[in-house]
Amino acid sequence: MLNTTLRSSNESEIPVSQLAGATKQAKTAQGVSVEFKNVNHSFLHGNRPVRVLNDFNLRIEPSEFVSIVGPSGCGKTTALGMVGNLLKPRAGSVEIDGKPIRTGSNEAAFLFARDALLPWRRVRSNVELGMEVRGVPADERKVRAEEWLRKVRLHEFAESDVLHLSQGMRQRVAIARTLVQNPKVLLMDEPFAALDAQTRAIQQEEFTGLWEAERPTVIFVTHDLEEAILLSDRVILMASRPGRMVVDMKIDLERPRRQEMRRDSDVFKNYFHEMSDRLRQEVDLAEERLREENKNS
What we know:
Elements: H1 16-21, E1 34-45, E2 48-60, E3 65-69, H2 76-83, E4 91-96, E5 99-100, E6 108-112, H3 123-133, H4 138-151, H5 167-179, E7 185-189, H6 197-214, E8 217-221, H7 225-231, E9 234-238, E10 245-250, H8 261-264, H9 266-296
Parallel strand pairs: 3-8, 3-9, 6-7, 7-8
Antiparallel strand pairs: 1-2, 1-4, 4-5, 9-10
């Protein structure tokens, strides 16, 4: 097997406006509301229950891009799992579009840090996977997959072996595989964390271009506060375990967002300093609690 890693030509030189322009026909908002109502949840640690979420309340409006940040173990990924119908809260409720989440619902889709592409499938076949599972006819799968590969600028690699793609290209395949299913809610758990800094910056801008055209509701979990501010309409800070919302910050920056805002925007810097101070407090509390638990165990 060849060890060649493919990279699309001029990968970093195509403007985000051009990428978003490929999907202008889909400007109608697709997103729906998501709401956590007095959610409580715990896991067993040995024989002892550990509360992860405590009276967690959050409403996300249709087509909003909301990031959740907080110390490790505060329940960010647990909250995502509830929206994705992977977990049921011990108490309280989670609703999509004002209704309880149904078993087998396909309203929400996940995008993770690792692309989880199937190595025995070629690029287009990977993009078709979710549609195949849901019984979409083969002809329709092919048309929709090719449309999305064009949107992420990978149509020339439709028949390529995914093992030969660069990491950034693989993540674009994963994005196409997720968005081709037209999810109303997109659940993103550190989707760019595995990328190098340059590729991550490119992917952030390109993804927001796609989101602005398609407008699903996005719940984005990250440990990168600058990333959260750059991408989001709102940033939610969760308390150290048990998780609850302690800050709900509206991000009033013009779109499209640009990486230069991190350096040039005083408004961006103010958001960052305000939120980072609160995040540091919560991280310190989490570390103190962990020391106490280890001392008493």
